[in-house]
Specification:
This protein is mostly helical. The chain is 92% helix and 0% strand. Helix 1 runs antiparallel to helix 2. It is rod-shaped. The two termini are 13 Å apart.
Length: 87
């Protein structure tokens, strides 16, 4: 029984990693697109990529933090709760 639970947990973590990476790149691309729109609307002079890279770093950190909670912690906690309550 423990081996089956371990296999299920490993498979679940592998699938959640794929979801995490996909969502991270999706949300980061959306944030980058919004920053590019801000750049164009403000008519800023200078290097656009440097400006975007400077502002996307804190956004990417927040995205990573929320994704760890939403993608890894909540499903694992839900599965643990389900297993605990069903036994």
């Amino acid at each position: 029984m423990i081996i089956g639970l371990g296999r299920m947990l490993l498979l679940m973590l592998a699938l959640l990693t794929v979801v995490y990476i996909s969502l991270f790149f999706y949300w980061r691309a959306g944030a980058k697109m919004r920053l590019e729109e801000q750049w164009v609307m403000a008519g800023r002079p200078g290097d656009r990529e440097a400006w975007i890279d400077e502002r996307i770093a804190p956004i990417a950190r927040r995205i990573r933090t929320w994704l760890v909670v939403l993608v890894y912690l909540l499903p694992v906690a839900g599965l643990s709760l389900y297993i605990t309550l069903s036994n």
